[in-house]
Amino acid sequence: MEKNKTKNLNEVKDEVKDEVKDEVKDTGTVALGIYAKSSTTYNDNVNASNPMPARLREVFHSYRIKRYSLLKTARKYLLNHAREVNAKTEELHKISRTINCKHAFAYEADCVKVDFNSKNAYYTGLQTCGSVWNCPVCSARITEVRRKEIAKAVEETYKLEYQAVMITFTFPHNNKMPLKETLRKQAEALKFFRSGNIWTCFKTKIKFLGLIRALEVTHGHNGWHPHTHELWFIDPKTKEKSFKAFILKRWIECLKKANLLSEDPSKAELEAVTKRSVDVKMNCKASDYLAKNDSAKNWGIDRELSKSANKGKAKGLHAFEFLAEDTPKNQKLYIEFVNAMKGKSQLFWSPRLKNLLKIDEISDADIAENEDEEEKLHENKVYFTQEFWDLILEKDYRAQILNRLESAENVSEEFWKIIKFLSD
Ligand SMILES: [Zn+2]
Q1: Cross-strand pairs, 311
Q2: From ligand 1's centre to the CA of 240, what distance in Å?
Q3: Cα of 317 to ligand 1 centre, how many Å?
Q4: How far is the C-alpha of 172 from the C-alpha of 276, rounded, in Å?
Q5: In degrees rounded to 5, what are phi and psi of residue 130?
């Protein structure tokens, strides 16, 4: 596996946070470190000349603009697809709830409201799709929460005196393989892997506590490339060499059973599979896993913003990159992806593992819906009626409004400026 040098948003955030901390130490000033500079709440603490929170805010804001812009293209692709299959208006949600995500009013809502927590401004009263696969806006929010859960799980594992091992499973693929079929075969191979006596005995031997599996799908010269990054929690005394050998041998057997590798592969084929299909890292830290297992790292937007060295390399594209450039080919690939991923979980946790590691159960939909995990800060009475919301959609201004309100010294004043801008 090639190491991806791309920085994702969280890494940028952490980096900036550390720099801010250092600055506070040096200058003794109180850093805000958050974006919502509301005059009513933060007036006393705001240090407007502090450049670091401003830089962090800038990165965050440009990401948000990109995400909403990608979501707009997603809606366009999905509506085109709906027309192709003659879907009726009341059936659009069956095609994908992403069509109306952050676009149409929620059931019984008569306006869109902007609320604030300590970090963000966010909309309430809008439909939200909660799709980690299809939606660049919901996915960002869900990933943020899931990353924290994984980090906590790894921490708890070591407290219980287990070790975390990271295993990446891939397989040979080509551009004649439709995604749906490839995913079905992959799921079969994974099921074979964890069935029968051999697996039960192995599990006991390594004191297997459970696993977290993340499914990732990219698309490159050789077509669709579904692969999984797994975290296993096992005995810290496990012997690395025999552990790795067992996993590789069993994965190759499973690939044959699932028809992802021929029964009698050529020497070259077998060599390639042996070399590339399994990657194991013992004694893994949460950061190792999160760096690899983060769909966001594959986004065009992250690459662009971090000016990564990876840009232009023949690496697989993430589905959101099909939204970055509106072309018929990209539309076709995105729709194939959306249809194939229906009902698939991005993250799988072994039964009872969350309970064991003290992680609360919360669904993707609930995460996407509730941005105010922290206490809501204050009521600013920022509302948009349908009439104004239509203008916002028309001007493609959803992200910018949140950005402006977060940066505003005075939220009410900024709100009236926005209204004026929309009415002009
Ligand atoms: Zn969404």
Answers
A1: none
A2: 42
A3: 20
A4: 9
A5: 65, 25
Render 171-191 in DSSP notation, one character per residue: ----TTS-HHHHHHHHHHHHH
In the reported structure, the alpha carbon of residue 96 is separated from the centroid of ligand 1 by a whole-number distance in angstroms of: 10
Q: CA of 169: how far to CAs of 1, 5, 339, 417, in Å?
A: 11, 21, 23, 53
Q: Ligand 1 center to residue 371 CA distance, Å?
A: 13
Alpha-carbon distance 192 to 213, whole Å? 15
Please report the pLDDT score of residue 141 as a whole number.
86
Domains of the chain: 153-302+347-360 (3.30.70)
The amino acid that residue 405 corresponds to is L
- Catalogue the E-assigned strands of 77-209: 112-116, 121-124, 163-169
Residue length of the chain = 424
Residues 369 and 128: beta-carbon distance below 8 Å: yes
Nearest partner of 295 among 338, 347, 339, judged by Cα = 347
Closest CA to 177 of 225, 136, 137: 225
Q: Ligand 1: distance of its center to the CA of 82 in Å?
A: 17
Q: Which residue has the tokens 């609930």?
A: 366
CA distances to 86, 102, 152 from 90, in Å: 12, 18, 41
Per-residue pLDDT at 145: 85
Provide the Cα torsion 282, 288, 289, 291; round to 10°.
Answer: -150
CA 121–ligand 1 middle distance (angstroms): 16
Write out the DSSP string of 372-393. Answer: --SPP-----EEE-HHHHHHHH
CA 367 vs CA 69, 101, 143, 149, 150: distances in Å: 21, 14, 9, 12, 15
Q: Ligand 1 centroid to 379 CA: how many Å?
A: 25
- pLDDT, mean of each 10-residue run, the chain (424 residues): 39 44 34 30 36 74 93 97 94 93 95 87 94 93 87 92 94 93 97 96 97 92 92 96 97 97 94 94 84 51 38 67 94 97 93 92 88 61 93 96 93 93 90
Q: Structure tokens of 113?
A: 């409201």
Residue of 179, 53, 163 lying closest to 119 (CA atoms): 53
The token pair that represents 275 in the structure block:
């070399």
304 contacts 312 by C-beta, under 8 angstroms: no
142 Cα to the center of ligand 1, angstroms: 10
**What tokens does 209 get?**
């506590």
What's the pTM value of the predicted model, to 2 decimals?
0.82
